[in-house]
């Protein structure tokens, strides 16, 4: 599993102040776990994801993946950002196969594996297209396929659907659940959307404004219900979903009021 143990991050601001970005955050992501960090902008969600990815060192605490300390980026963690980082001069197939190329996989094999991943995200027909020919949702599908190409232990997703229109965003959420169910990957996903967090997560970590702390946790089953039934509308319209949405909204408002009072 992925284990985050009392993770804290401090960094120096340009004006000389020490900024306390993350404060003693602890949680685990077991096999097939889909953990969502939820909170307002500036609560340390991206800082936490960057630490798990190995892009940012912890000031205190530890992160381990399958028992190994996370100290630098590695192929065991696939990352999908809000803004895709596809290479515009390479085809969709070449973008997905890029990590395999760096790993020394021969061309025919990596292209076959990349094409299979494009089938998984519904884009096999666009393998020879270029990123500029795709919509925003399609580009994010390519990003997910590319993140899966090296068969990572965990997917790290930093508000990947935040820039999409509402309809495309819902479609991408449903696609992600399908990919998660088929691949059985661990996922760490960050968002500021309560509904998105409820729909996707097997566990939600509700985070406070800076310094980011986990102020509430919710274990959920909506994502498994959708994986089984494919009926997102009835899940989101259920009384249980609505009650949890309002409970989490109240927690976030209380945390924000506490910061304002301080």
Structure in words:
Helix 5 links the parallel strand 7 and strand 8 (186-191). By secondary structure, the chain is an alpha/beta fold. The longest helix is centred in the last third of the chain and has 23 residues, at 239-261. Strands 6-7-8-3-9-10 form a six-stranded mixed sheet, sandwiched between helices. It contains nine helices and ten strands. The radius of gyration is 19 Å and the shape is globular. Helix 3 (107-120) crosses helix 4 (136-148) and helix 5 crosses helix 7. The two termini are 37 Å apart.
Task: List key phrases describing it.
24% strand, alpha/beta, 6-stranded mixed sheet, 262 residues
Give a topology summary.
Elements: E1 2-12, E2 18-29, E3 34-38, H1 45-53, E4 60-65, E5 68-69, E6 77-80, H2 92-102, H3 107-120, H4 136-148, E7 154-158, H5 166-183, E8 186-191, H6 194-200, E9 203-207, E10 214-219, H7 222-229, H8 232-236, H9 239-261
Parallel strand pairs: 3-8, 3-9, 6-7, 7-8
Antiparallel strand pairs: 1-2, 1-4, 4-5, 9-10
Helix pairs in contact: 2-3, 2-4, 3-4, 4-5, 5-7
């Amino acid at each position: 599993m992925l284990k985050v143990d009392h993770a804290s991050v401090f960094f120096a601001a340009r004006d000389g102040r020490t900024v306390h970005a993350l404060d003693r955050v602890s949680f685990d992501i077991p096999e097939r776990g889909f953990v969502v960090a939820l909170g307002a902008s500036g609560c340390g969600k991206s800082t936490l994801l960057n630490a798990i990815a190995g892009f940012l060192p912890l000031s205190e605490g530890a992160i381990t993946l399958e028992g190994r300390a996370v100290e630098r980026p590695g192929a065991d963690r696939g990352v999908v950002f809000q803004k895709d980082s596809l290479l515009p001069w390479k085809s969709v197939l070449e973008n997905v196969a890029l990590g395999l190329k760096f790993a020394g996989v021969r061309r025919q094999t990596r292209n076959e594996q990349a094409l299979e991943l494009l089938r998984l995200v519904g884009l096999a027909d666009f393998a020879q297209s270029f990123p500029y020919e795709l919509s925003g949702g399609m580009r994010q599908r390519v990003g997910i396929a590319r993140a899966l190409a090296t068969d990572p232990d965990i997917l790290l997703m930093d508000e990947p659907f935040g820039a999409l229109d509402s309809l495309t965003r819902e479609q991408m959420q449903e696609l992600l659940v399908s990919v998660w169910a088929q691949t059985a990957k661990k996922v760490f996903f960050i968002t500021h959307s309560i509904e998105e967090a409820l729909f996707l997560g097997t566990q939600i970590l509700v985070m406070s404004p800076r310094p980011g702390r986990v102020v509430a946790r919710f274990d959920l089953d909506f994502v498994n219900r959708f994986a089984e039934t494919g009926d997102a509308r009835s899940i989101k319209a259920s009384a249980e979903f609505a009650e949890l949405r309002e409970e989490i909204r109240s927690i976030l408002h209380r945390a924000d009021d506490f910061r304002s009072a301080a």
